[in-house]
Amino acid sequence: MKVVPSFFHPQQLSFKPAYEWAFGERIEHPETTARAENILQALQKDPLFSVQQPDAMSPGTLQELHAQPLLTLYNTASHLEDGQDFYPTVFPKQSQGKGDPTRLSHAGHFCFDAGTPLTRQTLDAATWSAACALQAAKALSSDVRLTYALSRPPGHHAERDLFGGYCYFNNAAVAARY
């Protein structure tokens, strides 16, 4: 039986939103580190899996698939204070312009929900999450037919110019592009 190369980076656990808004109520954020920590622990115990850290991605990898204003917004959020979660207002008046990604108050122009916050750690955690998907795709070969990327925050809802659904980069697109 072949070992399944699996990819995870501890920096993905640095992203810890405290809460989200649901139906006008502030609730505990459902996308916590617990899911990734539990999966990682199970992978590390199972001899079928070999957990490795992914290689760092070149900035161009994300720039190919994601709009520059979105990347700029994440960089802007990286200057938030530790422990500060920023929740975008959604459904901005598009007639007022496309939004300035250097101003967090314009983040609603780049988000499609009210539950996906930006924090100081968003960019790093989301970049390592995408790097896991990329590394898993790179590990596939004629003799390695199965890999696993433990990506957190997840990426399946992210679009070229929008984030939401707890997703910041489209990890599947990053892997498929490779």
Structure description:
The chain has 178 residues and is α/β, with parallel strands linked by helices. It is built from five helices and five strands; from the N terminus they run βββαβαααβα. The chain has helices spanning 33-45, 59-65, 68-77, 122-139, 171-177, and strands at 4-7, 19-22, 25-28, 49-52, 148-149. A three-stranded parallel sheet has the order 4-1-5. The chain has a two-stranded antiparallel sheet with strand order 2-3. β2 and β3 (25-28) form a beta hairpin. It is globular, with a radius of gyration of 17 Å. The protein starts with a strand and ends with a helix. The mean pLDDT is 92.
What's this entry about, in short?
The protein is built from 5 helices and 5 strands; from the N terminus they run E-E-E-H-E-H-H-H-E-H. By secondary structure, the protein is of the alpha/beta class.
